Amino acid sequence: MVVNHLPDFTQFDFTYQGVQRRVYRSGTGPAVVVMHEVPGITAEVARFARKVVGAGMTVFMPRLFGRVGMKTNPVERMVQLGRVCISNEFACLAENRASPITEWLRGLAKHAYDEIGGRGVGVVGMCVTGNFALTMALDPWVIAPVLGHPSFPLPVTRAKAAAVHATPQAMANARRRIDEEGLRFLGVRFHGDALFCRAARFATLRRELGDGFEGIELPAKSSKANTEPPHSVLTIGLIDREGEPTRAAVDRVLGFLRERLDPKHATSSSLT
Question: Which strand (E) or helix (H) includes residue 256?
Fold first, then answer.
């Protein structure tokens, strides 16, 4: 018997191209694939997923690595990041291509769309999965892509700090869909994130995607994790109180998903 560490989520095994992974599911309404950060589906990631459910959407949250349901800590994050960086499924230094695991995630997004239907699917990446939304938008059913503090490629050089971990074809497709379909991308990061998601990456996204990219950049001091460099807007950096910039950013992400996936129930939320 498999223990469910998130008892308010059901779970199922999804297989695509011969690879099977556990997926946690909850909610009703349009489908959103929530892709976790390191070190795994933490308590903080699950909290964000519950907010998506509470906003009237169905979450499909695959376990890509790590433990499930536990509170995050700095040591485990660094250990898991090291494991991810030597995994064949991730390409942590790739500038002009995506991690191989995005193929499996595209399969899951198609499964969610086939099951739920509606206008399309939302995808939310965080940290090491943050830029995956660019590649997943190759598929027409992905209509609400969110890039949460995207960290790949790791910014070990100036060029990698500005790169977006997607092929030129994926970026050309994103621009085409922006022009022809009105597709929009949403990204969030902290100012002062010098370790993983630097300002140069958002500058590239703005240059490449133009008006199709809405970039939210929050003051470093607005992060809850004030003893660490600011990074995870949607999870460990969230101060979940009315009036806090991180709470407003999460509310904007939820509003963006609803606007794109279910316009008749969307609210007019924005953050500048």
Answer: helix 245-261
